[in-house]
Fold each of these.
Amino acid sequence: MTDHTPNSWDARADAHSFYGFTDLPTIHERGTVVLTHGDGPYIFDVEGKKYLDANSGLWNMVAGFNHPGLTEAAKAQYDKFPGYHAFFGRMTDQTVMLSEKLIEVSPFQTGKVFYTNSGSEANDTLVKMLWFLARAEGKPERRKILTRMNGYHGVTAVSASMTGKPYNALFGLPFDGFIHLTCPHFWREGMAGESEAQFTSRLAHELEDVIRREGAETIAGFVAEPVIGAGGVIPPPAGYFQAIQAVLAKHNIPLIADEVICGFGRTGNVWGAQTYDFVPDAIISSKALTAGYFPMGAVILGPDLADRLQVASEMVEEFPHGFTASGHPVGCAIALKSIDIILNDGLLDAVRDLTPRFESGLAELAQHPHIGEARSKGLMGALEAVADKPTKAPFAADLSVSERIANACTDNGLICRPLGQAIVLCPPFIMTDAQMDEMFDKLHTALGQVFADIT
Ligand SMILES: *Cc1c(COP(=O)(O)O)cnc(C)c1O
């Protein structure tokens, strides 16, 4: 148990660290888990307690917490050139090489990459690019951004406006012109008697209606995660991206894939867009881009947007945007290594090999009378708790059912994440079968404990 005495790590964390996305009553009751190091998929706290991290940190630490290739790549680059920017016509060799690599592994024949320090900044950058382009092309009214409810795109003011979560109202967001369409979650949003194909077609019609209502000439882009991640691991219904892309193409609206979670292997292919068989106009990347070993995001523009943005920038001599650490050489060196490890060192194969075991473990837990849905793609999955399976009625919110399950797991040495009434699992790609068993055994125990307590 956490040590709450004065001057303990827990008390010190609480005294001067301001928590984000942390349930404060839980912290007051349970304290902060202060971590010191990791080994493979495990992390260790200041008291030496070991936890299997079934969430890969925050989806990103896909190669585990002490991959020698990645730490060596970082050390070597720190020794050689520990930092430089990408402004004023200068950039590092690592930056040049990473852009080449990203286009090579992208679905695009050609294109261009712009670097940020996070996924949120990459989404902000993308929106600024679309706005800049619209004005340069004489269409200043083309500013609205379409996303989906429960889609997660980040926390900066623009990316929070794109995110379809109710908590953004606490900030007076979204900004005007950010429109959220129906969440493509068939289990929850499908109507009585509606087939999956009918659901997909309803969502495509909704998009068509919104475009007509708003005016196609006012819409700058549609941004979507191939699988909604932080909104609850929601794979799209069959045919969704084909149906959506047909509508967007008709109105010349670009489709941008926010691949911050799906990118670099999570769904069993390099890109989630490959898994769902569509080619977007641009890709947003972060998280596994550096396997979590450096903060970095990237906007990867396909040929059409890259060319038009080039022309628009030349009209005013520059694209006036960039972050001090954009294209940081250490981040780029790590990303190059990370991509190499994922593609050539068996990590992507491991996702494919582990997926059947992951799916069967989830399916087994879905037998539980209070698990309403198990959903997954590749190595991202969620178990949705329900009070009543036939009606899908949720538990009363004040029961905090998913928090309790996650807390019982933490006590038992397993990190997993509560999300609404679901538990999210996104293990690192280096997990062994034995560690998969450990993950599901611990989760099984926690579900039994918590449901016995509250029902
Ligand atoms: C995490 C996430 C972001 C935001 O990335 P940050 O690095 O936390 O700013 C954006 N989009 C998706 C899909 C994400 O999962």
Note: The chain has a mean pLDDT of 97.
Amino acid sequence: MPPLPDTKANFHHKRSVTGPIPHQPPKWMPAPESLPIWQKFTAPEGMDLESVQRSFCRHVTKTLARTAHNMDDFAAYQALALGVRDRLIDKWNITQQHHTKMDPKRIYYLSLEFLLGRSLDNALLNLDIKELYRDALKQLGFRVEDLVNEEVDAALGNGGLGRLAACFMDSLSTLNVAAWGYGIRYTYGIFQQRVVDGYQTEFPDYWLNFGNPWEIERLDVTYEVRFRGYVNKIVEDENTVRYVWEGGDKVVAVAYDVPIPGFDTKNCINIRLWSGKPQKEFDFASFNEGNYEKAVEEQKTSENITAVLYPNDNHMVGKILRLKQQYLFVCATLQDVIRRFKKTSRPWSDFPGQVAIQLNDTHPTLGIVELQRVLIDEEGLSWADAWDIVTKVYSFTNHTVLPEALEKWAVPLVADLLPRHMMIIFDINLFFLQDVERKFPHDRDRLRRMSIIEEGHPQYVRMAFLAIVGSHTVNGVAELHSNLIKNVVFKDFVEYFGAAKFTNVTNGVTPRRWLYQCNPRLASLITEKLGTRAWLKDLSQLKKLSVFADDQQFQAKFMEIKYLNKVRLSEYIRTHANVTIPPDFMFDIQVKRIHEYKRQFMNILSVIYRYQRLKGLTKEERAKEVPRAVIFAGKAAPGYFIAKLVIKLINSVAEIVNKDPDVAQLLKVVFIPNYNVSLAEVIIPASDISQHISTAGTEASGTSNMKFVLNGGLILGTVDGANIEIGEEVGEENIFFFGKLADQVEEVRHANRYRRSDVDPKLRVVIDLIDQGVFGDPRIFEPLVSTLTVGGDYYIISADFESYITAQDVVDKAYKDKAGWSKKAVMCTALMGKFSSDRSILDYCKRIWKVTPCAVP
Ligand SMILES: *Cc1c(COP(=O)(O)O)cnc(C)c1O
């Protein structure tokens, strides 16, 4: 038999060097006489009209192999994107070289989700080359505005958590922090939503179909990842044993880099996304045995690991593939982080000074265990030294207090997939509980409550507890939420560790995307009025706008922009949802993931209430009413039956209301399909009022509330999450609060459980209309409606309903006063400085990561 080919050598060319290593001569150096040539031909791409036109045409003809006579908008988008990519890479290289030279502390932001949206417009604006490209492409026969719409969203996230990671990357880059994002390159992002017969249907989001110019494939940056296998115990001498994890299956993680340009800086940082690949391209042994299928199978299973993003928002589903994703992610990431650290030949004791790792929720918590494993099993550190390093490196952001969202993994599942990690988790827990016992002797219930292992059949690993124990700092994402963490969910841990470990960093959003990019007219007005665009890097400067809040001319300009944004959205709704909405209606918007705790159900119930009220009015009375368009968008998790029924109800109500001539001048209802970042950019600048109406104490922060108010839209909301802090900033007169407070909710729930009385009378009117079949077959909605009655109304819709309807009337009244409303809108934009993600990131840098900027000179 001929020898088998060396498949590893054939298929995996691994890099021998990864950039210059300080204090060490590089392995390859250009000959001195070749340096000028290198310098000449690696000079950054030109930033003048001729250069960008030349690179556009070069990409058209050479990269895409097309011609001027064989072009469409998509090809033009591709050529444009590739030219911008070249310029991003120039900046990226300069940044990385600078960081290698300075060797600052690196911040690693670990997130299973990055909801980036589109990149082209953002890159053009952050690099300040949009005008240049507009002129350059105009001469070539294209409009930049058309081409940016050709891009498909990078939708590697579900909602707020993933979008937060994206906003944070923009701020980290803009603030010149030496940061890396790490995540997974899912082949399928969040599903595409279409509405068929009023129901959500899901379609795969194969976003890479036409290539992705915003990633750099690094086929030579790969790491092996092991699953299963066994743990070998090695007795080195009488008091040393060592464990080695061996056997099992190995897959390979391949790096894909996504450059993230900062605004008005030379800095350009990186998000490194991992993709699963088979370790061997092909199992030749199986192949030679004639088992072709088995050989292909192995390839498929490793690629499966990173194939699809789990589409659940704030909901844990314990699928083994998800656990594999989490481990592949942290395993590859830590190898990369450690390799970068080791290039400088520092001792391990330097690691916490050089590396800070932030866990975006519990999804990357296995990283804590993995680092401990590497340090003790592979690097030979003692348990104590290793654990000291681990707990100085990690910090953890909690994103929710919803019980169904808290991650826990069955012990047998973890033990099977990651046997050594399961051992280490038990040890971490043992040492931790021994310490708890010392501090609180004879308190067995406390030990049970605080154990990382939840007892039962099976046992479970409580990931949040593991994350707390393995981190130096734990933060919530808004004041109320952080207080709930401290005083309720993790109370025992505060008593044990002390309050200083637990803190708050209120979320923020990047003003570059969520004002400058999505609302260019308003951004120009602000820049014109303030005489500078410095506000884009220091959002608190917006407060200088407040002196114009009573200025009639300024109000008129501000509201004219709002109107034009409403025209743009109305046009979008006409073409994508087939509903005509007059732009002079009040635009009342609720867009976010569909979830019971967010209470879109309560919103549509109130729309039904309004509908029947309007129908009961005389013609004269109707003339005094404020015309309203109630606009919904958002995805429901494919397995979340009740949430999907809410979408159906919204569409059924829309169908009846929109064709009823009695209310044609007063009420429109629409559900816009496929909510994503680029749709949010069209929707948000067009709101008069937006709804953030979660049951008090359930929405950790919310970030779309910030985006809306920043764009001069008011909030109708509950006293929850960041709504509270927004209210503090903009003033009580510029926000419409209603509903029970967080500390009243338990009382209401208790009463609901034993409720003999009926639901709120206004809500009863609405339920009766649904039951009578006004919105179609009531049997369809029965499971949804019964959550309010026999279901115990966990989200207290009934208890909040009266207050909600009253608040809606207050909104109507306020809207009738045009000047009054305009002033409120201006004040909203003016007073939102706090909610820039730059402020959040500076807060993390100062109080959690202890790092200062490292700007490229
Ligand atoms: C900002 C944003 C979210 C978060 O919305 P919340 O109302 O805070 O839940 C979700 N999805 C997209 C596309 C966003 O841009």
Note: The mean pLDDT is 95.
Amino acid sequence: MTKNTQEMIGISSPRIYGRYKILLLCLAVYALVVLTKLWHSAEIGQALLLPAPADHLEHYRRTRRLEDYLDNIQILIEPSHTPCDGPERVPLLVLVASAPGRLDRRDVIRGTWAKRQPTYFVLGTEPQGIDGSFADIYLEAKEHGDMIVFDLVDHYQNLTLKTALMLQWTLRRCPQTEFLFKTDDDVFVNPWMLEEVLQDNEDYKLVGYMKNNSRLHRDAYNKWFSPRWLRFEDHLPEYLSGTGYLINGEYIEKILKAAKKVPLLNLEDVYFTYLVAKENLGFNLKHDRRLSPYKPLISTPCSYVGLASIHSLSPDEIYAAWTKLLKVVNNNQTCDNYKFLYSDWLLY
Ligand SMILES: *[C@@H]1O[C@H](CO)[C@@H](O)[C@H](O)[C@H]1NC(C)=O
Ligand SMILES: *[C@@H]1O[C@H](CO)[C@@H](O)[C@H](O)[C@H]1NC(C)=O
Ligand SMILES: *[C@@H]1O[C@H](CO)[C@@H](O)[C@H](O)[C@H]1NC(C)=O
């Protein structure tokens, strides 16, 4: 056999073996990525850590009317000045759901991405009520002027009420904002990309990462558990992930008004973006993958440039991501050849 025919039929050709090796390596890496993703979606960690939330939903048996709650929740602390006080245009207001015990998260956000746009933290109070820890919150609010504190028991299951309070506060203190970005304190925001997302979507009412055809979690130990007595249907056609979504300022009032007619659900994103905005008001939701509820598997400076939000980061990770992003921005570096770093395959 000549070398050529050997190659054609593929017997023990070193070049072909080499190709298989690369293929095998790719398969192995991909399998790792998929397994990581699967583990992530199984929510193993959270399921083990959290107590059954069912008890915390009992107040919904008494009433699920938003007004019954809003009328009784007082505002305890709010900033005296905001960029919304004057006549200037306010393109974006960011409200971050936080909790009294999460000072480390607020501090890292203050020192990083919040420097680029008006950002406020929205908190409830510790379940014990107004006690010693409230003094710390008061001092923190006085020092930074960026806290909005409500007389609401701060609990994951009360996020829907907290989001309603965010809308109400925005209407009162910043009705001229063009967009409200609702996010959480474990989210990293890339302010430069968020600006682009705003420009690309200025005509839409709600913009976020659209989750299609999901099912409600019926296991009481799941963080996103929602019992059948709150919503009977398992299927959810679409909603925008609560890790970060934009609401067009013009529609906040309509959404809050409609919410007063829709019985409350503990899942704030499903409630506001699907039940109220989509189902009740007939608003179209806009999907934008850059408002990602995931994070990059590989953490390099270019991993963060193409996304406007990244979810589930520790304070250290937020700080590291910011440092890396600044490197790209300050050096005017282009990441055009590294777009794969933030493609769906490398997010988990
Ligand atoms: C949620 O807030 C309501 C009203 O303040 C309160 O009755 C309820 O106990 C809170 N739920 C939790 C889990 O703290
Ligand atoms: C959900 O569906 C919309 C169209 O209805 C689509 O644009 C979007 O990409 C889908 N979301 C995801 C995460 O694939
Ligand atoms: C950054 O790069 C862009 C395009 O590559 C260029 O137009 C711009 O002038 C650069 N800015 C600085 C400060 O170097």
Note: The longest strand covers residues 119-125.
Amino acid sequence: MLLLCLFLLPCMMTGHLVIYIMVTIFVTISYAPPKIPVHYIASGISANSSALASHPLGPFWNLRLEDSALWNQLQHIWDRQNNPILKGNRTGMQRRPKGQSLKEIEDECLSDCLSNKCSVPRVNDFNSMPEQIRAFIKSMHCREYPFLINQPGICQRKNDSSGVGSPTLLIAIKSQVGNFENRQAIRETWGRSGLVRGDFNKKGGLVQTVFLLGRQDSSTGPHPDLSNLLGLENEKYGDILQWDFRDTFFNLTLKDLLLWRWLQQYCPTAAFIFKGDDDVFLRTDALLDYLQKRVEEHKIWRTYTNETVMNLFVGDVISNAMPNREPSMKYYIPESFYKGVYPPYAGGGGMVYSGSLALRLQEVSERVRLFPIDDVYLGMCLNRLGLSPIHHPGFLTFDLPGTDRNNPCAYRSVLLVHKRNPKEMLTLWKQLQNLPAQC
Ligand SMILES: *[C@@H]1O[C@H](CO)[C@@H](O)[C@H](O)[C@H]1NC(C)=O
Ligand SMILES: *[C@@H]1O[C@H](CO)[C@@H](O)[C@H](O)[C@H]1NC(C)=O
Ligand SMILES: *[C@@H]1O[C@H](CO)[C@@H](O)[C@H](O)[C@H]1NC(C)=O
Ligand SMILES: *[C@@H]1O[C@H](CO)[C@@H](O)[C@H](O)[C@H]1NC(C)=O
Ligand SMILES: *[C@@H]1O[C@H](CO)[C@@H](O)[C@H](O)[C@H]1NC(C)=O
């Protein structure tokens, strides 16, 4: 019996092995990689160059290229153009100067950017798309718009008591020309520029607020001409940044891009940036405390690693969101424009990130196609940097539960609430100034 087993065992094992090999061979033979019709050649490389290995016809690193969606297609082109392996040794592997990639690719467009002569990317159902996405597609190659109002010196201005030039926290608020009341309420409450004390930690920091505006006058729609009033407001407060593009929902991403460029040029040493809407309430003092803690942690961390850049990005993080496919909705994104899940992003109303990260976002944004939803675009740029936004439960973009809204004590653990009109901002501000001790 034992002997029989000893003889049978090797036979069975060999049998299994033969079956395995046959299956493997069969699978290998029957598998054909997907074919793409054109042999893509990255710019600047001759197909004959013997110095370079030819790259495969099948896109093995991205098997699921969504070539039926415009954004994915355009992004794929940039990804290949910016891929150091595909690009080869054209420049002796030198790092190219910053900003050149975008310039090279779209030079011919940029000069015609504002005159609307540049060719519109082709997309099949263009004419059946809603007006706002069509307007976006027509101008999505264009990201340079001139200033109408600039504040070149604002980050060096505050130099009195503290002696420090650059702000600890730059508050950048997306506003619209007509929202005078929101801006004023913010200036009088949580967005007051100057030295601000922390909530617990009395150290606080220097706060500087700016408002980000596009153009809204008779040339961009049925708008009353408020430019003189805006000019007066800016004369008094000197905190308006305005660029010459139509201020629409799908153009909001431009405000982020242009803010980053402005930061790079005029305010590169700001420690942190809060970017938000003009209908939120921010507990600036509590945020300063929070940021102070992060800075201290980073200092400790730095002694163990060589990580000198602080990559902080905090907000109300939304993961695995899908594009909205309901054509009547504000956020509608057609399938022929974008396919896929959105990367994790900080949504609605406000988020805070470190100044050094803002400069990195500026750089990487030159390799990411414009996307009409600004929060998602920020998520895409972070994703490219290999970073994720950090979720903080104090960012209440969907507000407090109804019963807590009028209870000042409930705001103790809050950093941001959405949404509050100017009157509510003033009331809440007053209540939070004298919080009862039992809170
Ligand atoms: C490749 O080399 C052949 C023969 O030398 C030449 O005819 C052809 O034009 C070259 N192709 C490219 C893309 O340079
Ligand atoms: C790239 O080109 C430079 C100069 O032509 C050469 O010295 C270098 O070895 C090349 N590098 C690679 C990785 O081929
Ligand atoms: C700010 O203050 C410092 C020290 O008090 C001084 O050295 C510096 O020149 C000032 N900067 C500006 C722009 O006024
Ligand atoms: C964005 O602004 C540009 C420049 O004013 C304009 O041509 C374009 O139509 C705007 N896009 C949207 C989606 O409104
Ligand atoms: C940090 O950088 C220094 C000098 O550049 C190097 O000697 C050291 O090994 C680095 N330490 C770590 C943890 O990478």
Note: DSSP finds 13 helices and twelve strands in the chain.
